[in-house]
Amino acid sequence: MKTTKHLFYAGLMALLLGLMTLGAAPIEAQTGKHDLTRRTWSDGFTAYTVRRGTGGLLLFEGGSLYEGGYAFALKPEGGDFYRLQPAPGRSDIPILGEPGNIVRLRPYGPEMYLVVYDEKNLPFSVLAPIRDLRQRIEDDLSNYYLAGEYRTANGRTITFYPASVTSKRRVQGLTDEGDEAVPYTFGEEYNTPTNVVILPDGSAYRVEKTDLGLTIHRVTQDEEGLWTGDGEEIIRNARRTRFLSELDDLPGDFPCTAMRALTIGQLSRLADVDLRIMRNEIYARRGLRFAGGGEMQRHFESKDWYHPEADDVSDRLTELDALNISMIRRVEEMMTNETCRH
């Protein structure tokens, strides 16, 4: 029998699906409201402003927080279609994609995204509209990489609270000075926020996540601006016991996948275990029944919103679902290849 809590989550899921349907309104009804030159676009690593060139060509110019001078172009092909090509006078393309790839302007949730497709017409990369690249990277680190409650084998608990419209990012339990959550900022390397947490007293900690859990060391900044040192180990292999999200009114550990198209840069900042949960949560949200006794079955059966209904939900996936699954798999493959090289 369904409890009131189950009925609440069922209603919330229905509302979420309704919002997603509205977000997928016909492109013809939305394209006219969105001028690419009025936004800044990012693949999660770099950011680009857009200006119009000769012959209607759209010139994307920008770079990372460390260096600029990057550029590429989109040639309008009619409707929401564009063709990816090098900027005039250049031979390279600084984003994931090849000359001639189709790029489409697609609506997901309240935003429009540029999606690059490969020669097999499969999603290859995503450019998302942003306001500030540094802020976006910091939000990705605090809301996706860190956010959650973690517990060590000896019972110590540390909690990273996500940033939201109404609250700043905070951490609780990192030091022994009381139980109050304190704000933190991120250290930077090569002018780019990295996984180093700096507390108001100036102490700095490198936070690393693996399948074994969360490990935190004290670090200091050297003369070259890098965070180094064999500092004191504060936390070792703390397991996440609770997920926290800035979208806490929506069900799921990673509800962002139901509302936004995620970029390669955003996903690359997650640990392997988080990518695995994020990818499978998309299927779980559509009612996939996972293999009995497996890690994913145990994980999702603990969730009030999860209702397994089918062994194959491929026909239930939305365009946004399929896109985010493709992007997550691409990052997982990139991480696997990087590990093999080392």
From TrEMBL:
InterPro entries: YARHG_dom, YARHG_sf
Domain of life: Bacteria
Species the sequence originates in: Tannerella sp. oral taxon BU063 isolate Cell 8/11
Name of protein: YARHG domain-containing protein
Keywords assigned: Signal
Domain YARHG: 250-333
SMART domains for this protein: YARHG (SM01324)
Signal peptide: 1-24
Transmembrane intervals: none
Pfam families: YARHG (PF13308)
